[in-house]
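A common beginner's mistake is to predict each chain separately and then try to dock the pieces by hand. The better habit, illustrated here, is to supply every component at once so that their relative placement is modeled jointly.
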Amino acid sequence: MKVRDVLYLINGQLLSTTADLDREVKGGCGADLMSDVLASIQPEAVLLTGLCNPQVVRTAQMADVAAIILVRGKVPPQETVDLANDENLALISSPFGMFELCGRLHRAGLPSLEMPVSNGNSGCEC
Amino acid sequence: MSDTQKNLPISDKAVESVTRSEELAYELKIAEVMTASPRTIQACETMHEVMVTFRTSHISGAPVLDQDNLVGVVSMEDLIRAMANSDLDAAVRNYMTARIYTVKGSDPVIEALKQFVNTHVGRLPVVDENGKLIGILTKGDITRGLLKALQHDYAHEELIRYRASHLFEDIVSDRTSLILRYNIAKGDFTHGGSASSNIKRALLRLGASPQIARRCGIAIYEAEMNLIIHTTNGGVIRVEIEPHQISIDIYDDGPGIKDINLAMQPGYSTASEEIRELGFGAGMGLVNIARCVDQMKLESVWGKGTRLKIKIFLQKNETVGERYAGNKEKS
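With all components supplied together, the output reads:
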């Protein structure tokens, strides 16, 4: 599925202008905590989130996210849009809520790209 | 679904280049894209001579001069009119378009585009500050100029990438390394992540694989946000890039971590409600860092400061790769 297909499925409004809409989307991930995103997301996913600050774009950039979808028709501050344009990242706003959006995209064939995060200790030599 | 379609006006693959070419239309000067010193025609010449000139020079229009002064433009259309009237012996001044729109060579290309739209002419004479003819411009000239500039942009990034990726081969020493240093200010959420972003870009330019760049990006981003959120006076990120490894040092001068073991627990966080509203403080930062790197050392003295040293190995047999946070293997 391509970013432009996602746009269509979710009645999305494209907020950034420099992104490649033919970029391939391999799956999805939904989260509002950026560290959760970084902990669990696999590359080339769409990120569904209710968070609108520029850190969403930074997080997406670090995690090789294919597109960001802001849920519930949220309008991000201009800095967020500017940063998305700088990084050629698709920033999309959709009128639907998180649950509806996950459902629509999953039903259309997008798998979850959220890796399990258990509560075990991670490797660190302290 | 009609709403969706309405929202898809930018469903053109060329979106990226269109916006860049729009930018270029403002950056490029008309003089850079025009045809300089064009073939000109004197007003006293006959239309028959115009026909011969068009044919031999393979052009379809030309500026008309009276001595040195620009007095009009003659085009294929004017020639056809003269031919239809069997009037090829007439002087050019009788058939040329005398009302001339000109553009200045020093103006941006966008001015010429506006003129083309407003006047519907096929070519515009280009003049200098004194009104003297210096060239001729068609829409084809603009297209060629824009394409050339876009190609140039592309070649420039390629060149940067090429130069950077050969950096380590080009410089001979017993041990070559590149050190990047970033000062991170406390509470600077606006620029939060810009250091990690620059580091990730640098690594990709140096030829690092997307996986390596992603792991470094995530680890450094978490550390950068920690400096912004938790330190007293901000801190420093120092990245040393060598052909076989990337070593990252992140340090600050306080307040330090009270209980490192607790801090390493997934979900443990001391972040305020305010920070959590920004999407941080999930208590996954250090866990995430550990997951992305091959070696990690965290030292902290309460009241003094914290130093985090991480390493990512670039040789395939040494690196562990990105792990699930739940994996318990020790690095």
